Amino acid sequence: MNQLQKDIKTALSWKAFLPYEKTRHQDNEAFKRLEWYINKDIDLYCKLEMRAIIKEALANERTHMGQNVLKQLLQSLEGLDGYE
Questions:
Q1: C-alpha to C-alpha distance for 81 and 18, rounded to whole angstroms
Q2: In the chain, alpha helices (H)
Q3: Are 31 and 20 in contact (CB under 8 A)?
Q4: Residue 19's CB: how many other CB atoms inside 10 A?
Q5: Is the pLDDT confidence value at 9 over 90?
Q6: Which contacts qualify for 42-48: CB closer than 8 Å, 24 or more apart?
Q7: Which residue from 81, 3, 4 is spatially nearest to 44, judged by alpha carbons?
Q8: Residue ranges per domain, the chain?
């Protein structure tokens, strides 16, 4: 378990002290995601998030040069873990 996962686990332990009626649906969804991060590989999640952000930026980029830079970033990221 890496340090980020340990920090998340500590933060989630505070959840036990929150009264349920004071939590919102959005809070509960965030807690679920944090629990998922502890149990799954955080690095994989970060790569997936970066890939999604780059793809969204690529879809919105209007300049040819900007598209080329974003494509190179995406290829570099995909080359790190062997995904195509």
A1: 39
A2: 3-13, 25-39, 42-60, 64-81
A3: no
A4: 6
A5: no
A6: 42/2, 42/4, 42/5, 44/81, 47/77, 47/80, 47/81
A7: 81
A8: 3-40, 43-81
pLDDT, one tens digit per residue, over 33-64 is 787 777 777 677 778 888 889 999 999 999 99
Q: Running DSSP on this structure, what letter comes out for residue 18?
A: S
pTM: 0.48
Say which amino acid occupies 61.
Answer: E
- Amino acid letter at 68? N
Torsion of CA 29, 7, 76, 54, to 10 degrees: 30
Q: How far apart, in whole angstroms, are the C-alpha atoms of residue 28 and residue 42?
A: 20
pLDDT of residue 23: 75
